[in-house]
Amino acid sequence: MTRFITSSFSHLILLIGILIMVFPVWMIFASSTHTSSMINMSGLQMFLGDSFYENYLRVLLYQGGFFKEITALKMFFNSFIMATGVAILSVVTSLMAAYALVYYRIKHATFLFWIIFITILVPLELRIFPTYSVMAELNLVNSYFGLIVPISASAIATLFFRQFYKTVPDELLESAKLDGANTWRFFVDFLIPLSKTMIVAMLIFMFVFGYNQYLWPLLVTTSEQYWTVVMGLKMMSGSIVHRFAFVMMSMVPPILIIIVLQKHFIKGVFQDK
Amino acid sequence: MSFLDLKNVTKIYPNGTKAVHETSLSIDEGEFMVFVGPSGCGKSTLLRMVAGLEDITEGDINLDGKLMNEVDPSERDVAMVFQNYALYPHMNVYNNLAYGLKNRGIDKETIEQKVNDAAKLLQISDYLQRKPSMLSGGQRQRVAMGRAIVRNPKIFLFDEPLSNLDAKLRIQMRLEIKKLQQKVGVTSIFVTHDQVEAMTLADRLAVINNGIIEQLGTPIEIYDNPKSLFVAGFIGSPQMNFLDGNLKNKTLSAEGFEIKDINSDYEGDVTLGIRPEHLSQTENGLINLKVDLVEQLGSDNLVYGQLKDKKDFCYRCPGNQTIKTGANLSLNIENNKYYIFDKSTGKRVN
């Protein structure tokens, strides 16, 4: 009986936690399915209305921006390209950087690693003007390339992969060498499959990181054609329900990525153990 | 020139440690060579230099008539079984075996046939689709051997492959390795610190100490005729008994007894070595042993005790003799089987 009470109590606390997290999101979602006049008259809504399709479709296809060149759909596309690009590029570069640092006979590899790691202490905002001027010189302003590349070197991911590689036993490399694997084959046939779970985790992490970027895309894009969702959130004008609908939709891609990749993530964890 | 030739091979690590001293050694085709010695004696380093996993500081290694010093491990056509097996954890057993063949650009059907043949030989056919984590220690060991066999290499290198197995399995795998090597007939080098493993497996044995080969020969030669104190102490179980003594005019005087007409002109302080199994009980024997402890192994008894000067001593007798703790035994050395070593250099003098 006491066990029942204590477990009910802890469940109750957890449920309250969930409620606190979910409630504001639910309010926005419920409100976004009503008409603007309804919200203006009676405030935020707790229950679903019947303008869901109307509001969401209008938001997706509405020609917005100062020059009416961009739709929410295009922003989602841009954000998706940017986030995917950042995720893939940063994972690839980190994997390779860590490989070189751990397995190549580089002098002062540890020192070099800390140099890379120290960049964590330098936020993007601090280097944003030099970075911008480099991009401008290279004529990469207003391009996906310009959006993606300058934020695609991740010290954190390099750290994770480096630490992981250091736990891979040397015998594995030696055995692979005797089996005729060259450096590239060892990387592709061993380290990549072995770090699969970590790669997935980093992909999620970097996708969200890329998706959430605000300042950099703001600076490096002057054409509305390259606006991203997060920029759009700030630029949105119009009726309150449409803004709510946009906010709701902006949450979908990161959640989707986590749901899709989490399956592989967990599978990987169980396979390795 | 023999199949594998080591000429003045030396290894000095960057920190200045000399792991292997100018070592020369020839191994014939099909021979099973065992490197045995205590841990840190350089036996693994020597093996890894043959594999190409360690650079050679000085000297030459020739395999099948070709100088190997600068040849990449992947090009040497050697196969190695590691102590912890080093199986590829993310590949199933089939791919573990097939990986080396795939890298050599062999076509799929041939690979399949070779893998299946090797699997049959090692009785692992049922596990081909399993990952290494789903195998027992003995099965992993077999997969590791399979990976070596399947490539049909010029030479097998074993780096203490049995030390992770439990005692029973170790003996079983030892037999299997020996049988397999005889069947396949591939030249092999086996590194171990276990002298029983070394004795049972080897065609020839190299006893290594401090980076130097102390003695090279067949197991029986080395057992019967150890050339140094180190080899005498290392080979044989239980260990040889060592007593201090002095040699003068072909007469050895030790604590409490003398041996006359010794076949040596050496004079000075010596160490007398007697194997526990080369003793027998008689009346008025040379050695008087006060028994402290008897280990009954069934087939044999190991009798531990002390001599007059409190020196520890061991005697091995057939298991049917009953010996009580506290008894006084009088022992003789059978057939003059004793070994005399120069006390300062450790070299054999008789």
Name the descriptors.
heterodimer; A: 273 residues; mainly alpha; MetI-like fold; 14 helices; 74% helix; B: 350 residues; alpha+beta; Rossmann fold; OB fold (Dihydrolipoamide Acetyltransferase, E2P); 2 domains; 5-stranded antiparallel β-sheet
| Count of helix runs of chain B | 8
Regarding CATH, which class of the domain at 71-237 in chain A?
Mainly Alpha
Largest interface: A-B, 20 and 24 residues
Radius of gyration of chain B: 24 Å
Which bin fits the share of residues in helices of chain B? Answer: 10-25%
Number of helices of chain A: 14
User: Sheet bearing the most strands of chain B, described?
Assistant: 6 strands, mixed
- Mean model confidence by pLDDT of chain B: 90
The chain-level mean pLDDT of chain A equals 88
> What overall form of chain B do the CA principal axes indicate?
globular
User: What integer value in Å does the Rg of chain A equal?
Assistant: 23 Å
Unreliable segments of 5+ consecutive residues of chain A? none
Architecture overview:
The complex is a heterodimer of chains A (273) and B (350). By secondary structure, chain A is an all-alpha fold. Chain A has a domain at 71-237: Orthogonal Bundle (MetI-like fold), CATH 1.10.3720.10. Chain A has helices at residues 2-32, 36-42, 52-61, 72-103, 109-118, 128-137, 144-148, 155-167, 170-178, 183-194, 196-211, 215-220, 229-235, 240-272. The mean pLDDT of chain A is 88. With 350 residues, chain B is α+β, with helices and mostly antiparallel strands. Chain B has two domains: 4-231, P-loop containing nucleotide triphosphate hydrolases (Rossmann fold, 3-Layer(aba) Sandwich), CATH 3.40.50.300; 238-342, Nucleic acid-binding proteins (OB fold (Dihydrolipoamide Acetyltransferase, E2P)), CATH 2.40.50. Helices cover 24% and strands 34% of the residues of chain B. Chain B has helices at 43-51, 93-103, 108-122, 137-149, 167-184, 195-201, 219-224, 229-234, and strands spanning 4-12, 18-27, 32-36, 58-63, 66-67, 78-81, 155-159, 187-192, 204-209, 212-217, 241-248, 251-254, 257-259, 268-274, 279-281, 287-296, 300-306, 312-318, 328-333, 339-342. In chain B, the strands form four sheets. Chain B has a six-stranded mixed beta sheet, sandwiched between helices. Chain B has a five-stranded antiparallel beta sheet with strand order 13-12-11-14-20. In chain B, strand 17 and strand 18 form a beta hairpin. In chain B, helix 2 crosses helix 3, helix 2 (93-103) runs parallel beside helix 4 (137-149) and helix 3 (108-122) crosses helix 4. The longest helix of chain B has 18 residues, at 167-184. The chains are: A mainly alpha (273), B alpha+beta (350).
